[in-house]
C-alpha cells in the first residue's frame, strides 16, 4: 500500500457524494446512540476507568493468562493453536477443514479472520465460505471489504442490496428492507443446516474458565456455534481478560460504545466443546490464538495500550477523517483512528505506513474510547517513528539546509523574509511543484506586510 | 423480599419490552398453558417444539392444550426437524432484571436450538429465576460448579440494522420473543 494509494483512494472517496452522505448519516446515528446510552456521566467515567484497569491488568499478565486460558480450554477437551502469523493460522484452519472434508463453512462476523484473509485461503481450496452476518454477507456478495468494524455495509443503499441479492441469490428485487432481510434469512438458513464447520471470532476470552465470549445481535453466531460439528474460533491474543467477574463491565462498555445498546440481543459464553449427553453444540472446539504482530506491540511499552482496544468502532463514528473518506480509503482491514494505528503495526510492518498522518489529531477518538486509549499520542508517536525510519527526500534535505542557513544570522533571516513576501505576491499563495503538494489541501499563510522585527525597529526609533 | 422481587420483575419487563420482547406474568401452571395457547394461536403456530427441561415436563403442555390443533415435537435436537417448527418453547435458568435478559445454561438432553431455529420463541420462566444483574448470574454459576459448555444470554428477538441502519427484527434467530413469568 503506497502513500499514493491512500491519497488516490481518499480523493476518490471524497468525490463520491453518495458515499459521504451515507457514512455521515450512519456514523452520526451511532455516535448519538452511544451518547444516549452513556447519559450518566459519572457511570460512564467509572466504567471507562474499570475497563482500562481490567485490560491493563490483563496485558500486564498476558503470558500467564494465555497459559491459564489454554489449560482451561484443553482440560475441557478443546484444542488451542498459537498462530504466530496469518499464514500459520490459515494453514492450521485449512488442515482442520480438509480433515473434516468441509464443503460448506458458515462464518460469523470477525475482524480477525478478515485480518488474515482466511476466506480467500479456504475458497482457493474449493470450500464454500458463507458469511452469515447480514452486513458481511452483502459485502461478500459484492466482493468488497468491510467499510466499518461494526457496520460492514455502512456504505450500501437498499437499492444496491436489492440489485445485488437479485443478481447473486436470484430473489425478486425489493425496496423493502424487511423483505431483503427475509430473503437473506431464507437463503442463509439452508447454508446453516448444511455446514459442518462453523468459524467465529471472539470479543473476549476469560482465562479463569477458558471461556470464549461472542457478542452479536442477529443470532448467526449462535447458529454458527450450535449446529456444525466443528467450531473454530480465531481470536487475537489481546482479547484475554483475567476473570469471569471482569466480563460484565467489559460487555457494558462494548455494546454501549458500539451500538448504544444496554446489552446486545445475544451473547454466547462458550467453554469447550459440548459435553456428554448434550445433543448439540460443536463436538470439536478449536481456539486459534493469533499473534500476527501483537506480541511485538506488547513488548513495546509505549505502544502497548493499543492492545486494550475492544474493536467497538466508536472512534470511527466521531472521526472527521473517517466520516469524509469512509473505510475503504484506509486500504487495510481496520479503518478510522484505530486502523491508522494498528494497520502499520500488525502483520507486515510495511503496510499502511502513511495512515498515521491521515488524522487531524482533533482528539475526538480519545474522548469516546471506552478503554481510554490515547489515540492521538499513538498517532504522533508512529508518525515520528516512521519519519525517522524513512530517509528524507532530496528536496526535503535541501529545504531544511536552506532553512538552517536562513535562520543562522539576523541578516539572512531578514533577507529570507523579504524573498518570501515577494514570492507570495507573485504566486498569490499557489506555490509551484513540489511545494504544491502542501498548498493543494491547505491555505498558505500570507506573510504579514510588516514583520515583528520591522515594527519593533520603527517603534523603538519613534520612542527614543 | 417481596418488594424487591416485584421491582426487579417490573424492571425486567420494562427492559425487555424496550427491545421488542413481550412479557406476561401468570399465577398458575394452568394460566401459563392458557397464555401459551393464545400466543401460539396469534402467531399461527402449528408445529411446536418443546424443550426437555424439568419445568416444561412438569407443565406437560401437550396434555394441557391437547393435540388436535398443535403438532408437538418433544425434546428434539434434530436441527432439520427444529427448522421446520413454527415455535420453540423453553424455560430459562435466569431472568436478569438489569437488562431484561434471559440466561440459558446448556446441559444434558437440552438443545441449544429450540430457542434459536423456530421463528417464535416462548420462554416459561419461574419467577424465582429473577436476579438483579449479570454479575449475579456468573457468580452463581461459578459457585455451583463450573461454566457450562454454553451459557447464552438472550435479550429480545434477533435484530439487525445492517441495511441503511434501519432496525429490522428477525434476521437469523427468532422474530418474536415471549416471556411468561410463572409465580410459584
Ligand atoms: S480504539 Fe477505543 S474507540 Fe476505537 S475501536 Fe478500539 S476500543 Fe473502540
Offer a concise description of the structure.
The complex is a heterodimer of chains A (464) and B (184). By secondary structure, chain A is an alpha/beta fold.
Strand order of the largest sheet of chain B: 1-12-7-4-2-3
Unreliable stretches of chain B, pLDDT < 50, 5 or more residues? none
Small molecules in complex: iron/sulfur cluster
**The CATH top-level class label of chain B:** Alpha Beta
The two chains with the largest interface, and their residue counts, are: A-B, 68 and 51 residues
> How many structural domains of chain B?
1
Q: What's the CATH architecture name of chain B?
A: 3-Layer(aba) Sandwich
Average pLDDT of chain B, rounded to a whole number, is 94
- The number of strands of chain B is 12
In helices, the fraction of residues of chain B equals 25-40%
Number of helices of chain B: 6
Strand-residue proportion of chain B: 25-35%
Q: Give the tally of β-strands of chain A.
A: 10
Describe the largest sheet of chain B.
6 strands, parallel
Mean pLDDT of chain A: 91
Molecular structure report:
The complex is a heterodimer of chains A (464) and B (184). Chain A is α/β, with parallel strands linked by helices. Among the domains of chain A are: 58-295, NagB/RpiA/CoA transferase-like (Rossmann fold, 3-Layer(aba) Sandwich); 394-463, no CATH class. In chain A, 52% of the residues lie in helices and 10% in strands. Chain A is built from 22 helices and ten strands. Chain A has helices spanning 3-15, 17-37, 41-60, 62-75, 86-99, 111-115, 118-124, 134-141, 158-169, 177-194, 220-226, 247-259, 294-299, 314-317, 320-325, 336-342, 364-368, 375-389, 394-407, 410-427, 436-439, 452-463; strands at 79-83, 104-107, 128-131, 197-200, 204-206, 211-216, 230-236, 240-241, 266-270, 284-290. A six-stranded parallel beta sheet of chain A has the order 1-10-7-4-2-3, sandwiched between helices. Chain A has a four-stranded mixed beta sheet with strand order 8-5-6-9, with helices on both faces. The longest helix of chain A has 21 residues, at 17-37. Chain A is elongated, with a radius of gyration of 26 Å. In chain A, 46% of the residues are buried. The model of chain A has no long low-confidence stretch (mean pLDDT 91). With 184 residues, chain B is α/β, with parallel strands linked by helices. Chain B has one domain (3-182): 3-Layer(aba) Sandwich (Rossmann fold). Chain B is 31% helix and 27% strand. Chain B contains six helices and twelve strands. Chain B has helices at 2-18, 29-42, 54-59, 61-65, 79-82, 134-144; strands spanning 22-26, 47-50, 71-74, 87-90, 94-96, 101-105, 120-126, 130-131, 150-154, 159-160, 168-169, 176-182. A six-stranded parallel beta sheet of chain B has the order 1-12-7-4-2-3. A four-stranded mixed beta sheet of chain B has the order 8-5-6-9. In chain B, strands 10-11 form a two-stranded antiparallel ribbon. In chain B, a hairpin with a 4-residue loop joins β5 (94-96) and β6. Chain B is globular and about 45 Å long. The two termini of chain B are 15 Å apart. The chains are: A alpha/beta (464), B alpha/beta (184). At the A-B interface, α2, α8, α10, α11 and α12 of A face α6, β9 and β10 of B. The complex binds iron/sulfur cluster (SF4).
Amino acid at each position: 500500500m503506497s502513500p499514493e494509494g491512500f491519497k488516490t483512494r481518499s480523493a476518490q472517496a471524497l468525490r463520491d457524494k453518495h458515499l459521504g452522505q451515507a457514512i455521515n448519516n450512519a456514523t452520526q446515528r451511532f455516535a448519538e446512540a452511544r451518547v444516549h446510552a452513556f447519559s450518566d456521566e459519572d457511570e460512564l467515567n467509572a466504567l471507562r476507568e474499570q475497563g482500562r484497569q481490567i485490560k491493563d491488568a490483563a496485558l500486564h499478565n498476558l503470558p500467564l493468562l494465555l497459559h491459564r486460558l489454554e489449560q482451561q480450554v484443553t482440560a475441557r477437551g478443546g484444542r488451542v493453536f498459537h498462530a504466530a502469523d496469518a499464514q500459520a493460522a490459515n494453514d492450521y484452519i485449512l488442515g482442520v477443514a480438509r480433515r473434516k472434508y468441509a464443503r460448506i463453512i458458515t462464518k460469523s462476523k470477525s475482524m480477525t479472520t478478515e485480518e488474515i484473509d482466511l476466506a480467500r485461503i479456504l475458497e482457493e481450496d474449493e470450500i464454500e465460505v458463507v458469511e452469515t452476518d447480514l452486513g458481511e454477507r452483502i459485502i461478500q456478495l459484492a466482493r468488497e471489504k468491510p467499510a466499518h468494524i461494526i457496520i460492514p455495509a455502512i456504505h450500501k443503499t437498499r437499492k444496491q442490496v436489492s440489485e445485488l441479492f437479485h443478481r447473486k441469490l436470484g430473489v425478486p428485487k425489493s425496496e423493502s428492507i424487511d423483505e431483503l432481510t427475509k430473503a437473506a434469512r431464507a437463503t442463509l438458513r439452508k447454508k446453516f443446516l448444511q455446514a459442518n464447520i462453523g468459524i467465529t471470532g471472539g470479543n473476549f476470552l476469560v482465562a479463569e474458565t477458558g471461556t470464549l465470549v461472542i457478542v452479536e445481535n442477529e443470532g448467526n453466531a449462535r447458529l454458527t456455534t450450535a449446529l456444525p460439528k466443528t467450531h473454530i474460533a480465531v481470536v487475537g491474543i489481546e482479547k484475554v481478560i483475567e476473570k469471569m467477574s471482569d466480563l460484565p463491565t467489559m460487555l457494558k462498555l462494548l455494546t454501549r460504545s458500539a451500538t448504544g445498546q444496554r446489552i446486545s440481543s445475544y451473547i454466547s459464553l462458550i467453554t469447550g466443546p459440548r459435553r456428554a449427553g448434550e445433543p448439540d453444540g460443536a463436538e470439536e472446539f478449536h481456539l486459534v490464538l493469533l499473534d500476527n504482530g501483537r506480541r511485538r506491540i506488547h513488548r513495546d511499552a509505549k505502544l502497548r495500550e493499543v492492545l486494550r482496544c475492544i474493536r467497538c468502532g466508536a472512534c470511527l463514528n466521531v472521526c472527521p477523517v473517517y466520516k469524509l473518506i469512509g473505510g475503504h480509503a484506509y486500504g487495510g482491514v481496520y479503518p478510522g483512528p484505530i486502523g491508522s494505528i494498528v494497520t502499520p503495526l500488525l502483520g507486515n510492518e510495511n503496510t499502511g505506513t502513511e495512515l498515521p498522518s491521515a488524522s487531524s489529531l482533533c482528539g475526538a477518538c480519545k474522548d469516546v474510547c471506552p478503554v481510554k486509549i490515547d489515540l492521538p499520542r499513538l498517532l504522533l508517536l508512529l508518525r515520528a517513528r516512521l519519519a525517522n525510519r524513512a530517509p528524507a527526500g532530496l528536496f526535503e534535505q535541501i529545504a531544511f539546509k536552506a532553512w538552517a542557513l536562513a535562520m543562522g544570522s539576523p541578516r539572512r533571516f531578514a533577507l529570507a523574509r523579504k524573498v518570501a513576501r515577494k514570492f507570495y505576491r507573485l504566486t498569490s499563495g499557489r506555490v509551484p511543484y513540489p511545494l504544491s503538494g502542501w498548498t493543494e489541501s491547505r491555505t498558505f499563510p500570507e506573510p504579514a506586510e510588516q514583520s515583528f522585527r520591522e515594527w519593533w525597529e520603527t517603534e523603538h526609533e519613534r520612542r527614543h | 423480599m417481596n418488594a424487591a422481587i416485584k421491582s426487579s420483575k417490573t424492571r425486567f419487563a420494562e427492559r425487555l419490552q424496550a427491545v421488542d420482547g413481550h412479557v406476561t406474568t401468570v399465577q398458575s401452571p394452568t394460566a401459563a398453558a392458557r397464555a401459551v395457547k393464545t400466543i401460539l394461536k396469534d402467531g399461527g403456530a402449528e408445529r411446536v417444539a418443546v424443550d426437555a427441561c424439568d419445568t416444561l415436563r412438569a407443565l406437560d403442555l401437550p396434555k394441557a392444550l391437547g393435540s388436535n390443533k398443535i403438532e408437538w415435537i418433544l425434546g428434539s435436537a434434530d436441527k432439520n426437524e427444529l427448522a421446520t417448527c413454527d415455535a420453540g418453547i423453553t424455560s430459562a435458568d435466569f431472568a436478569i432484571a438489569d437488562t431484561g435478559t434471559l440466561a440459558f445454561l446448556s446441559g444434558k438432553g437440552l438443545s441449544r436450538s429450540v430457542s434459536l431455529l423456530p421463528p417464535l420463541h416462548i420462554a416459561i420462566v419461574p419467577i424465582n429465576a429473577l436476579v438483579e444483574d449479570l454479575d449475579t448470574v456468573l457468580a452463581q454459576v461459578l459457585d455451583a460448579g463450573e461454566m457450562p459448555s454454553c451459557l447464552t444470554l438472550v435479550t429480545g428477538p434477533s435484530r439487525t440494522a445492517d441495511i441503511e441502519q434501519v432496525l429490522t427484527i428477525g434476521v437469523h434467530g427468532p422474530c418474536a420473543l415471549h416471556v411468561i413469568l410463572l409465580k410459584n
